Amino acid sequence: MKEPLEQQEGNEELWRTIFADGHPDLLKQHWLHRKLPLKPRCRLCLVPFRGIGGWIMRRKGKAQNSRNPNFCNACDQFLESFPGGAEIELSMLYVDIRQSTEYATGHSAAEVSQRINAFLNQAIGIITDHDGFINAFYGDCIVASWPPGFSGESHALKALTAATELVKKENIVSNGETIPVGVGVNSGKVFISTVTALQGTFRDVSVFGSEVNRTARMAAMAKAGQVLGSAENLSAAGKTPSDYDFEAVEMKGFSDPVDVYTIV
Ligand SMILES: [Zn+2]
Q1: 175: Cβ–Cβ under 8 A, 6 or more apart, which residues?
Q2: Mean pLDDT of 215-232
Q3: DSSP label at 179?
Q4: Alpha-carbon distance 31 to 202, whole Å?
């Protein structure tokens, strides 16, 4: 079940610096923390939680936060102290498992759970290896973004490359079988902000806006092994949209039909 999350506003300059321009302190931490093993890492500062790197950083007081395990103690505290967000241009993707219901009817709960964990581990690995920022995962769906201040200038190409890696047969597997996934990839203006659960115990960073809905819709339309995307993402990634097939699709929340490009 989804946490009831509340979008937060404030500290706009700070969040614009972090996600649009790149904050010098955070970029320095990324540079240092990337050299240290092992995954998983804090989503914001990339400090490792396991292996020798995790051990070194725990001795420096940077440990995985116990109630908010996606972030280290320092970043969890930062999200609490500086709630807010900013409207910025970024790239994003949604990836979800296809035919989950069909799989669940023929398999045990343990098998279903093992398959979902295999999907989450491998897909999150692909996304973070391409400098993506994980925004959320709900069961069999992951939402990730590539804010330029976090992921670099070539955010659109990185998101597009991660999208095509996610649908390669050999990349997302469980017990030797490909887990079928569909992906939607897009670039556009969104509101990226801290979120907090209504009971105040859970903090995260999420994306909001019609471009986010459009990405989710494209992922939902994608067949197993398919990546659907937008002309905006293709152009920003240096590709020529007219090289790809597209279809104009009616979408809730959009007055005109939206062009959806078949990328893979
Ligand atoms: Zn951190």
Answers
A1: none
A2: 97
A3: P
A4: 27
Residue whose tokens read 């992921």: 151
Residues in the chain: 264
Neighbours of ion ligand 1 (CB under 5 A): 42, 44-45, 47, 72, 75
191 falls in which pLDDT band (50, 70, 90)?
A: very high
Q: How far is the CA of 202 from the centre of ligand 1 (A)?
A: 15
Expressed in percent and rounded to 5, the helix, strand and coil fractions of the chain are: 40, 25, 35
How close is the Cα of 145 to the center of ligand 1, in Å?
17
pLDDT in tens, 170-179: 999 999 999 9
Q: What is the pLDDT of residue 1?
A: 39
Query: Which residue, chain included where needed, has tokens 């509340």?
Result: 6
**54 DSSP β-pair partners:** none
Q: Which residue has the tokens 């039909």?
A: 257
Q: What is the mean pLDDT of residues 24-53?
A: 94
* pLDDT at residue 3 tops 70: no
Superfamily name with CATH number, domain 85-262: Nucleotide cyclase, GGDEF domain (3.30.70.1230)
Distance 43 CA to ligand 1 centre (A): 7
- Domains of the chain: which residue ranges? 11-81, 85-262
Burial of 18 (0-12, 13-18, 19+ CB in 10 A): buried
> How far does the centroid of ligand 1 lie from the alpha carbon of residue 156, in Å?
24
Structure letter (DSSP) for residue 82: S
C-beta separation of 173 from 122 below 8 A: yes
Mean pLDDT of all residues belonging to the chain: 93
Q: What is the pLDDT of residue 200?
A: 63
Q: Are 44 and 205 in contact (CB under 8 A)?
A: yes
